[in-house]
């Protein structure tokens, strides 16, 4: 029986996210697993929900709608780039929420066998101020989590 059938890769479009997707693709090929990509976005806390903003060429949109549209476009481009590199992404979606909570929930609801997540490897004050989504996912996920740093990658 194959222990890894479904892999979830949360992405923030950074280099660590690309590295995580590459690792996940290798694992997916080795195990014959499916690979799904998730991007979680959050409305900035300084902006009241439902507030309208004017965007050049887009008319009036709420800040949530503008961020949702931009997140979807960025995710589509990220996945298209991955597919051009031969990575078989089965599904991709963007959703609103707190990143670590949304990732853990998505993994549980989707019955994923593995989460492969990029990490920036911040320490000290930057980690205290920015937090660590990967660390929170490792602590709370129901399934194994592989965290990937770009510093861990072999140089070409």
Order of helices and strands: EHEEEHEHEHHE
What's the average pLDDT? 84
At CATH level 2, the architecture is 3-Layer(aba) Sandwich
Shape: globular
Can you count the beta strands? 7
Strand order of the biggest β-sheet: 5-2-1-6-7
Write the layout of secondary structure elements.
Elements: E1 6-10, H1 15-31, E2 34-41, E3 52-55, E4 59-62, H2 63-84, E5 91-96, H3 99-109, E6 114-118, H4 124-130, H5 133-140, E7 145-148
Parallel strand pairs: 1-2, 1-6, 2-5, 6-7
Antiparallel strand pairs: 3-4
Helix pairs in contact: 3-5
Keywords:
single chain; Rossmann fold; alpha/beta; 5-stranded parallel beta sheet; 156 residues
Structural summary, described in words:
The structure is a single chain. This protein is of the alpha/beta class and 156 residues long. The protein has a single domain (6-152), classed as HUPs (Rossmann fold), CATH 3.40.50. 42% of the residues lie in helices and 23% in strands. The protein contains 5 helices and 7 strands, in the order βαβββαβαβααβ. The strands form 2 sheets. It has a 5-stranded parallel β-sheet, sandwiched between helices. The protein has a two-stranded antiparallel ribbon with strand order 3-4. α3 runs parallel beside α5 (133-140). The chain is globular. The N and C termini lie far apart (36 Å). Mean pLDDT is 84; it is low at 125-130.
């Amino acid at each position: 029986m194959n222990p890894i059938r479904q892999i979830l890769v949360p992405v923030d479009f950074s280099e660590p996210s690309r590295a995580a997707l590459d690792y996940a693709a290798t694992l997916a090929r080795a195990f014959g697993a499916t690979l799904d990509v998730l991007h979680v976005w959050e409305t900035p806390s300084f902006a009241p929900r439902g507030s309208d903003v004017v965007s050049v060429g887009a008319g009036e949109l709420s800040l949530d709608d503008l961020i949702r549209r931009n997140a979807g476009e960025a995710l589509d481009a990220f996945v298209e780039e991955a597919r051009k590199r031969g990575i078989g992404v089965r599904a991709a979606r963007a959703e609103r929420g707190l990143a670590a909570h949304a990732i853990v929930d998505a993994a549980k609801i989707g019955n994923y066998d593995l989460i492969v997540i990029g990490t920036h490897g911040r320490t000290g004050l930057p980690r205290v101020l920015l937090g660590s989504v990967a660390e929170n996912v490792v602590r709370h996920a129901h399934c194994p989590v592989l965290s990937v740093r770009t510093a861990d990658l072999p140089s070409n």
